[in-house]
Specification:
single chain, 209 residues, Rossmann fold, 3-stranded parallel beta sheet, 6 helices, 10 strands, binds glycinamide ribonucleotide
Length: 209
């Protein structure tokens, strides 16, 4: 798992993976920010951690190569981005295609990039949510694995909407990773292809709290 900060999605995956029946094991937590609070969550769970700062590398490609070496040395199969605030080079994204996933706090393809909840409120949409998707070179654009819808309340500010969406993320990411690690979704010809799973797999709805 690659993080840059708080690591609440990391915690959700740590909790899910603590079940012996969960189809994935978290082998390594890598942060590009020293002292990221998420690292402490990994340590508490007995998971190996690495910190590697992009500031120590002259180019994006060199940083990505250093990350890749760590992943290969640790025999990592799947990479989950969880609040990892770095964009990978095209080459990295291509080499890990199908094995690299991300969570984003909107119903993609709407509201890509930063300040997502501000964008959602400014647009006036009444339903928002979060998405887990395969990472491709274009930012926030890969095939979608799973989405959860949350209501946007007329009383919402950015922090209220972010909190409701984050709670949905914590349910969605473990479910999406289980689909991938369990072999029930894969990336083929630029699409998410599902098999041996109910037709509604990957769709969650969170009622008004
Ligand atoms: C989450 O809301 C995640 O969706 C978002 O960063 C937050 C990380 O929180 N990611 C992005 O915006 C990526 N484009 P966390 O560190 O508590 O998991």
């Amino acid at each position: 798992m690659l993080i840059s900060g708080r690591g609440s999605n990391l915690q959700a995956l740590i909790d899910a993976a603590s079940d012996a029946n969960y189809p994935a094991e978290i082998a390594l937590v890598l942060s590009n920010v020293a002292g990221a609070p998420g690292l402490e969550r990994a340590v508490r769970a007995g998971i190996a951690t690495r910190t590697i700062s992009h500031r120590d590398y002259a180019s994006r490609e060199e940083f990505d190569a250093a990350v890749e070496k760590i992943l290969v040395d640790a025999a990592i199969d799947l990479v989950c981005l969880a609040g990892f605030m770095r964009v990978f080079s095209d080459g990295f994204a291509r080499r890990w295609q199908g094995r690299l996933i991300n969570i984003h706090p909107s119903l993609l393809p709407a509201f890509k990039g930063l300040n997502v909840h501000r964008q959602v409120l400014d647009a006036g949409v009444r339903i928002s949510g979060c998405s887990v998707h395969f990472v491709v070179p274009e930012l926030d654009s890969g095939p979608i694995i799973a989405q959860s819808a949350v209501p946007v309340l007329t009383t919402d500010d950015e922090s209220a909407l972010a909190a409701r969406t984050l709670a949905a993320e914590h349910a969605l990411y473990p479910m999406a990773l289980a689909l991938l690690a369990g072999g029930r979704v894969k990336l083929a010809d630029g699409r998410s292809v599902f098999s041996e799973t109910p037709a509604h797999a990957g769709s969650l709805f969170v009622p008004t709290a």
